[in-house]
Amino acid sequence: MVYLTRKEHFNAAHKLSNPNWSEEKNWEVFGKCSNKNWHGHNYELYVTVKGKPNPDTGFIINLKDLSVLIREEVCLKLDHKNLNVDVPFLNDILPSTENVAIKIWEILSPKIIEMGAQLHSIKLYETESNFVEYFGEN
Amino acid sequence: MVYLTRKEHFNAAHKLSNPNWSEEKNWEVFGKCSNKNWHGHNYELYVTVKGKPNPDTGFIINLKDLSVLIREEVCLKLDHKNLNVDVPFLNDILPSTENVAIKIWEILSPKIIEMGAQLHSIKLYETESNFVEYFGEN
Amino acid sequence: MVYLTRKEHFNAAHKLSNPNWSEEKNWEVFGKCSNKNWHGHNYELYVTVKGKPNPDTGFIINLKDLSVLIREEVCLKLDHKNLNVDVPFLNDILPSTENVAIKIWEILSPKIIEMGAQLHSIKLYETESNFVEYFGEN
Amino acid sequence: MVYLTRKEHFNAAHKLSNPNWSEEKNWEVFGKCSNKNWHGHNYELYVTVKGKPNPDTGFIINLKDLSVLIREEVCLKLDHKNLNVDVPFLNDILPSTENVAIKIWEILSPKIIEMGAQLHSIKLYETESNFVEYFGEN
Amino acid sequence: MVYLTRKEHFNAAHKLSNPNWSEEKNWEVFGKCSNKNWHGHNYELYVTVKGKPNPDTGFIINLKDLSVLIREEVCLKLDHKNLNVDVPFLNDILPSTENVAIKIWEILSPKIIEMGAQLHSIKLYETESNFVEYFGEN
Amino acid sequence: MVYLTRKEHFNAAHKLSNPNWSEEKNWEVFGKCSNKNWHGHNYELYVTVKGKPNPDTGFIINLKDLSVLIREEVCLKLDHKNLNVDVPFLNDILPSTENVAIKIWEILSPKIIEMGAQLHSIKLYETESNFVEYFGEN
C-alpha cells in the first residue's frame, strides 16, 4: 500500500451556534466563534488515498483526476460560501471542523472507490494551529 | 535605522460588494467574493516599525508592548468579526485587503510614535497567495 | 473516531550531555549539542486528541479548553526556560526531544481523559527538520 | 515506541512517460508531466524511524548519523539529477513519486536496522500540494 | 500608494551551463547545477503591483485579472517546461533565477500598465533558501 | 540591479539582561526573556546582496560561495552557542535580534564587496512572529 495526498483549499464563513440554545449559552460554549455576524477561515484540505501503484503509470490514482474530483465535489461547494447557510450537505449539522471533515469523507469515499483506490483520510485545517483528521467509521 | 516586525493574526468574515451597484455588476467585478452570505479568511498581519536600538535594551521598541498594542487596537476589533458589519473603523469603506491595511496604518501609526518609534509598513495577508503592503502617505 | 490537533509552542534552552560521561565522550556522541553553555530552539508542539463529536457542539473537545490546558500544564513550564535546569518534571532525564515528548504525554494524558476525550499523540518539533511523535505505551 | 523524523531534500528533473506508449497516449495519461524535455521539482523527504530511547542518550537513533545516512545513500544520488536517466536504482521504473518513495524505503530500511532502529515511513513531497507515504510491505 | 502581491508557481527543469565553456569550466563554476541531464525546481513567483485603490472597488487591480495575466503570460510558458530548451523568451540567456526574473518583468510590466497599475517587483524563489528580486531598470 | 537572497540558520541560547540593572528591573523590562538560566531560538538568517548579473554566469554572486561565506563567518560562530557567552563579536552588547543583525552586517558587508557585490540587507528571524531587518548605516 502507498498513500497519496492532494492538498486543496477553500475560504468560507461560518459560526458555531447551537440553534436550540440561548445566545448566552452559545457564548459560554463557543465564545467569539458564536459571533452572530459570522467570521471565516482559509481552510486547507488534505485528501489521502491508498492503493498499489499501477505498473503502467506508477500511480495509485491519477493526481489530476483526484484534484478535479476534490475541486468539483467539495471546494466548488464550499469556497467563498457560508457553511451555515449556503451548503446543502451541511444543512442539518453544526459546521465544526470535525463535522465538515466527516461530510467531506462521505462525499469523496464512494467516488474514490469508483476510481479504483480507497480514501484513507480527510485532514482539514481551520487555521494553522487547529486541524482535524477523519479515517472513516472503522 | 533597524526595522522590527511583529506578526499577529485574526480570522474574519467579509464580502466585496459595492452597495451602489446591482447584484449583477457586483458579480461581474467581484465574482465569488461578492457572495451575499459572506465568506472569510485567516488574515495574517505584519507590523514593521523602525528606529535606532536603545543602548540599554538593544530594542527599537519593546516587542511585548508592540504585540499588546496590535492585539488591543487591531486584532481584538477584527478577530471573529464581520468586516462589513461589526467594525466601526471600517464602516464607510469596502473591506478590500488594501483598504483594511490603510485603516490599520491610521490606527497604529500615531500610537507607535508615542512609543518612541515609527511605523514603517503594514503587510496584510488575506491568503498565502494574496497580500498587501502599505507604507503611509509619503 | 475523529482526531483533533492543537498546535502550541515554547522557546527553550537545553544541552545534550550525559553527566556520567567525560566531556570528550559527550562531544563524540552529541557533538555541538553538548556545548556546555547551552543552545536553544523554538519548539512546536502538536497535541492530538481523539473522540466522537458531541452532537450539541460538533466538538470532540472544546479547543479553547484544550489550548488553555496545554499552555498551563506544559508551555508555561517550558517556555523561556532551560530544560536541563528549570523544569522539575524533566529533572532526572536527558532533555532529548524524545524524552520531552514522553513527559508531555504523561502530563496531558490523564487530564484529557478527565475532559472526556483521549490523547492520541504528542508531536514535538525541535527544528523544522527534526521532530518526534509519541503515541503512549500501547 | 517513539517515532523520530528527519527531513532532507533534493532537486531533480524527471518526466512521466511510459516508453511502451505512443506520445499521444502519454499525453492523454500524464498531460504536461510527459513533456519530452523534462520538468523538475524541489523534493522534500521525511524519513521516520521508530524505537525505544536509549537511556544513556535519550535517542532512538543519533540524528546526525541518520542525516548522514539519508544524504549519502539517497540525496547524493538524486540531487541535481535526472530521475529517468542518472539514477541506477530508478532505472527500470517510472519515476512517479510513489515509485521513488518505495525505492528509497528499500535502500534505507536495512541500513536503519543495522543502526539499531526500524524504518517506519518514507514521506516524499513532490510539491507542497502532492505527497506520498510508504510504510513498507506489511 | 498601496502594494499588492499575487503568488503563482511553476515547476520546471533547467541547467546552468555556459555553451562557450568546456564541461570542466562549467563544473568549476556551476557545480552540480551544470549536470548535463538537467535538474529542476518548484519555482514560486511573487508579482507585486502598486497603485491607488479605486474608490468603487477598493482594489489597485483586480486580483483575478492579475492572476489570469500571470498564469497566461508566464506560468503557462514555463510550467512543466525545460527553461533552456522550451521557452522562446529565454532562448538567448542562461536561465539563472536572476535572468528569469528580469525576463518575467519585461513581459509583465507593459501589460500591467495597460491594466492601470504599475509593476513594482518580481520575486522569484528557486528553492525556499534561494530567491531573487527585481525592481526594473530604475 | 538585481537582489539575491540566501537563507541560512543557526540554533542558539541567549537571555536579555542588562548587567547594570537589578534582577527586578530586568524582569520588568525583559520579562521571561531575562530568565537567568537562558532560553533559546531557531534563528533564520536571510542575507540579501545586490548587483548586476554577470553575462557569463547569469549570477550576481555565486550562491555556493555566498552560502559558504555565511556559514563560515556567521553560522559556525553562532550555531549551538550561547550568544551572551560564547561569541567574541557579541561580547560587549545585549544579544537582542536588532543587535545581532547589525553585527552580522558588519562582518559580511566588507567580504561581499570583495566578492564583487554589495550587501543590501540582513533579515534575522528570532521566531516566525518576530524578525528584524538592517540595511546598513545609510
Overall tally of structural domains of chain A: 1
Order of helices and strands of chain A: EHEHEHEE
Which value, in Å, is the CA radius of gyration of chain A? 17 Å
The oligomerization state is: homohexamer
Structural class of chain A: alpha+beta
Please report the distance between the alpha carbons of the first and last residues of chain A.
18 Å
Biggest interface, residues from each chain: A-B, 22 and 22 residues
The gross shape of chain A turns out to be elongated
Question: What does the main sheet of chain A amount to?
Answer: 5 strands, mixed
Q: Strands of the biggest beta sheet of chain A: in what spatial order?
A: 3-1-2-4-5
CATH-defined topology of chain A: Tetrahydropterin Synthase, Chain A
Helical content class of chain A: 25-40%
**Beta-strand percentage range of chain A:** 25-35%
Superfamily (CATH H level) name of chain A: 6-pyruvoyl tetrahydropterin synthase/QueD
Please outline what is shown here.
The structure is a homohexamer of 138-residue chains. Chain A is of the alpha+beta class and 138 residues long.
Model description:
The structure is a homohexamer of 138-residue chains. Chain A has a 5-stranded mixed β-sheet with strand order 3-1-2-4-5. By secondary structure, chain A is an alpha+beta fold. Chain A contains 3 helices and 5 strands, in the order E-H-E-H-E-H-E-E. The relative contact order of chain A is 0.21. Chain A has one domain: Tetrahydropterin Synthase, Chain A (2-Layer Sandwich), CATH 3.30.479.10. In chain A, helix 2 (63-78) packs antiparallel against helix 3. The mean pLDDT of chain A is 97. In chain A, strand 4 (118-127) and strand 5 form a beta hairpin. The C-F interface holds C 9, 11-14, 32-33, 35, 37-42, 79-82, 85-86, 127-128 and F 9, 11-14, 32-33, 35, 37-42, 79-82, 85-86, 127-128.
